[in-house]
Amino acid sequence: MIKGFIFDLDGVITDTAELHYAAWKKLSDDMGWQFDRELNEKLRGISRMDSIKVIMDHNGVSLDEDTVVELATKKNDIYVESLDDMTPEDYLPGARELLTHLRSEGFSVALGSASKNANKVLKQLNAIHFFDVVGDGNSVSRSKPAPDIFLYAAEKLGLPPENCIVFEDAEKGIDAAKAGKFHSVGIGPEERVGHADIRFDTMKEATLFEVKTHFKDLF
Ligand code: G6P
Ligand code: MG
């Protein structure tokens, strides 16, 4: 039986990819590194430190760990400042409706995000009340594709993975859900999340009715 839902944040509840892109772009420009939207796609769902390593590898750059942390912090300062402009208008279409529906039907709901800024994003969206549990980049040390963040969220909800559906927009996020033996819903194109149990192009199509129809034996 499905009793709980675990949501990724960036790309599922709200589209922060553009803000992450702008902040990494500013840092890369300052450093003289090549960075474009194609490379930004590779950062979907992975932690901040893993992200900067992908960018440095792409540019053939190697620096000592303290400098890498300093640069990642610089990017984060730019990103966090840009979050000040986020408002409750910035849910991805369909996301607020689904969260509201899940609440009204009494499901348990958790966040399972790699972001250390998840609480700030939820606050800006006025979304904190939708979640029984917030698992974020501070909750576990191994990030996606390891299943740890989803296992953490499920454990805090008091549910085993087979009773939960994970919503994810990242390839590595679906990998993480599968590694943890969760049911999975992919949001995005086939080539990114086609390995999920069910896939929707956007959150708008991902209604509770559609999800229940697909997983009908589990409700
Ligand atoms: C999300 C995004 C990633 C980002 C990560 C860490 O998973 O999809 O692109 O790198 O969070 O975010 P943070 O806010 O901690 O830098
Ligand atoms: Mg995501």
TrEMBL record:
It holds the Pfam family Hydrolase. It comes from the Bacteria. One of its GO terms (molecular function) is beta-phosphoglucomutase activity. InterPro entries: B-phosphoglucomutase_hydrolase (IPR010976), Beta-PGM (IPR010972), HAD-like_sf (IPR036412), HAD-SF_hydro_IA (IPR006439), HAD_sf (IPR023214), PGP-like_dom2 (IPR023198). Keywords: Isomerase. NCBIfam families: bPGM, HAD-SF-IA-v3, PGMB-YQAB-SF. This is Beta-phosphoglucomutase. The lineage of its organism: Bacteria, Pseudomonadati, Bacteroidota, Flavobacteriia, Flavobacteriales. The gene is pgmB.
